[in-house]
Every structure is written in C-alpha cells, then in structure tokens.
Amino acid sequence: MSTIKEIARKAGVSPTTVSNVLHGRTARVSQHTRQRVETFLRADEYAPNMGAVILARSNSRIIGLILFMEPRRDETVLEDPFSSTILGAIESEIRRSGYYLMLYTTSDEDEVIRLARTWKLDGLVLLWVPGAICRAIRRSIETPVVFVDSYFEEDDLEYHKVGLDDYRGGYRMAEYVLSQGHRQVLFLANDDVRPGGDRARFEGCRRAFAEKGSELPDDRFIVVSKDPGTRRDLYGRISERPFENTALLFSADYYAAEAVSFLADHGTRVPRDISVTGFDDNIFARLIRPRLTTIHQDVYGKGRAAIAMLLKLIRGGEPVDSDVRLPVRLVVRESVAAPGHEVSPDAANI
To answer: Domains, the chain, ranges and CATH?
Structure first.
C-alpha cells in the first residue's frame, strides 16, 4: 500500500493536500483536485489509520453504545434475544448514516460514568442505565446522549429517551389473565430497580387487579436470579405446589420459556396445571410449546427511534418528542387457560 507521500507524488499535489482530503478538510481544495486525489486513493486501496483520522477531526464519526446489564451466569449479554436484536437495529442505523459503532457492556456504575466522560464520541446511547447514573452522566458530559429503557427521578435536567409503555404492558397482561379466572398469580421480574421497567409493569398489573376488586400485594413480586441453579430451585418449588399459584407472569420471554420447559420436565402441565405468560414476544415465545401468551414490543423499532433521536441532536437539532414511549400489544397463544382447563384452540392476537 502506498504512503501519503507516494500518493501525493502520483497525483501531483502536496502531502498536505492528500492529508486534507483524507481528513475531510476540503474547504480550500478544489473539486478537481479532490477528485484526482480520491481517484489515486481508491486505486491504491489506501486505508487510513482510524486513530489518526479521529485525532485530526473535530468529530470522530463514532457513536458509543453502552449496555448496562449484568449477564446471566455462564452467558454473555448478547446471547439474550432482546440485546442482540436492539444491537442489530442500532448498528444498522448507525452504519447507514455514515457513522461507526463502539460497543461496551458493563454492570459497573463507576465504569459507565468514566467511559462516558473519556470516550471521544459524536454521540452516546445508553441502555438500561439506572436514574442516578443518568443524572451523573448528564451533568458531566456535553456529548449528545439518548437513554433507552431508562427511568428517571424528577430533577432539573433534560433527558432524551426512548422506551416502552411498560405500565400498559403489565396492565394488559393482568387484565387478560384475570378475564381467564386467575387471581393467585406471581409476577417474576428481571430486577427491582426503582423506578424501572419491571416495577412499572407490576404497577400496571396492580391497577388491573384493583379494577376487579382484587389485590396484588408486594410479596407477589419475585426477582428471578441470574444464577440458573437458583432459578431451577424456584421453578421446583412452584412445580411442587402448583395449586398455590394458578398463573406466572414473567417480565421476560426468556425466563417464561425456561420455566415452561422445566415444569414440563417435572410433570407440571402448562396451561392445565398452571398458566405462564411472558413479555417481549421474542423467538423463545414462538418456539416453546405451548407457545407463549406474551406482550409484544417492537425492539427493532426501539433501536431505530433511538438513533434517529441521537442523529437529530448530533446535527444541532431538537427532536419533536424527547420522551418516546413505544406502544405494546397483547399476543394470546396457548400458554394460558382458565384454572383447570385446556387453552381454547382459537387463540389469536389481541
């Protein structure tokens, strides 16, 4: 591969001119000269040192993505269908817009703040970051930031965020299982962050119960462990006493599908003995048997919306809506039936 000096000699220009074309500093370079230099760069398949390009430019063309998530034991964050789907959507939109993606996963609060402060980025997307960390980041960096699936306490800062109508999702699911005759239910959550998505879903469930004159107390909210052995112990206790709970409302399809499989292996039939629901409508919901009744969310659309908002901020504009909440819908399949009865064969999307 030729050097900058060799390309300059071939093009009949100075090395400085070649460097200016490479780094996008073409205000004082004529169109004819720029095209001539670019022709020789392409012919020689010149690949610039990205570190040097970033240092030379006022903008890096890099968008950072930090996933604040503790992976399940013996798994990586990206093995989760939700993570891989939203990552794919974000990367696709970033690349299509002429930017590059820098990805990092962590569950260390101090590390998130340090990375946000030290990376040279044009923009930053943060997923599932707790509100206290969000405040620290907004107060300490000037980089445009969009938060995805993050909840905030009231303060004097402006946040640009994309999320889900979690409360509505919880309400719709509880409304449906109540219509099927269930009153003894467990809500099985990913975490207990407050404020947070799982708590919002649980509060939606509570509203549905209250409208039916029933109560869903706090001890019905169970956080599912990241450790598979601990989860199996939980499912085992449930399978030994299925009469104590007639329905399990999971806040993630992954855990719902895992529970359905475990219960089947231990002689507890879904939905005859116990009903199970999920949340997300990912590939697990469609592959497990019986297929999961769940709450659908547009994960790919969530990633697209986040990047559209961020690009608007990077380019000096202001999004029409700084708080985007995507809708949800109930998807009825075969994992829910009235207590003691099989599921109806005409289950359909609602």
So the answer is: 4-56 (1.10.260.40), 62-164+300-326 (3.40.50.2300), 166-297 (3.40.50.2300)
100-106: strand order across its sheet: 100-106, 62-68, 123-127, 145-148, 161-164, 323-326
Query: Among 25, 21, 29, which residue's Cα sits nearest to residue 4?
Result: 21
Confidence of residue 345 (pLDDT cuts 50, 70, 90): very low
Taking each helix axis from N to C end, the angle separating 81-96 and 299-314, rounded to the nearest 10 degrees, works out to: 40
Structure tokens at 338: 């009235």
What's residue 230's pLDDT? 96
Q: Tell me the C-alpha distance between 200 and 189, whole Å.
A: 11
Residue matched to tokens 């798994």: 75
Range in 51-65, 151-165, 209-223, 325-339 with the lowest mean pLDDT: 51-65
Band the pLDDT of 243: cuts 50, 70, 90: confident
Residue 299 phi/psi, 5-degree rounding, is -65, -45
Alpha helices in the chain (DSSP H): 4-11, 15-22, 31-43, 50-56, 81-96, 109-118, 131-140, 166-179, 197-211, 228-240, 253-265, 283-287, 299-314
- What does the pLDDT average to over 74-96? 90
Give first-to-last CA distance, the chain, whole Å: 60
* DSSP-derived 3-state class of residue 296: strand
What is the SS3 assignment for 253? helix
Q: For residue 136, what are the contacts with CB-CB under 8 A and spacing of at least 6?
A: 113
> For residue 230, how many other CB atoms are within 10 A of its CB?
11
Q: What pLDDT sits at residue 346? A: 47
Structure tokens at 193: 């962050």
| Rounded Cα distance, 67 and 181, in Å | 39
C-beta separation of 274 from 245 below 8 A: yes
3-class DSSP assignment, residue 207: helix
